[in-house]
Design a protein that fits this description.
Layout (H helix, E strand, L loop, with lengths): L6 H27 L6 H59 L6 H24 L1 E2 L2 E2 L5
Antiparallel strand pairs: 1-2
Helix pairs in contact: 1-2, 2-3
């Protein structure tokens, strides 16, 4: 599963949402003060315009939520990978210690148990790390 998040697209989206939100607030202010109503027919047009703007804002809000969820998924994946990296470093350290001539067979057995425990922790992290019910592990 590949996920691409472009910060530039997110910034463009947020700027567009802010611009439309300001326009919507301006329209509501004009409607509430009556400054844009010259005759009864104007009201119908303004209501349709406001409805359209409200629909746009709801759509942009959902898009912003989707972007946020994607960012959270990426952050969780990054944190999981960092933890796996730390565990792999510890496993390497155990392997180097085990290769030392100063270690007895009993010591190597204990180091192997630690190695297996690290491996199990990596498997657990990759299987159980989820954001919004989505696994951060690749299903390939």
């Amino acid at each position: 599963m590949t996920l691409k998040v472009s910060a530039n697209q997110g910034n463009k989206l947020l700027n567009y949402i802010r611009k439309n939100d300001l326009e919507l607030k301006k329209q509501f202010r004009n409607l509430s003060t009556g400054t844009r109503l010259n005759e009864a027919a104007d009201n119908v047009g303004r209501v349709a315009q406001v409805d359209h703007l409200e629909e746009q804002v709801r759509g942009y809000y959902r898009a912003a939520q989707n972007a946020y969820e994607g960012i959270q998924l990426a952050r969780t994946g990054d944190a999981t990978l960092a933890e796996v990296s730390n565990l792999l470093i510890n496993m390497r350290s155990l392997a180097v210690k085990s290769a030392s001539d100063a270690m007895s067979d009993t010591d190597r057995k204990y180091l192997d148990e630690g190695f297996v425990a690290y491996r199990d922790e990596i498997e657990s992290l990759t299987k159980n790390s989820k954001v919004f019910g989505i696994s951060v592990a690749s299903k390939e």
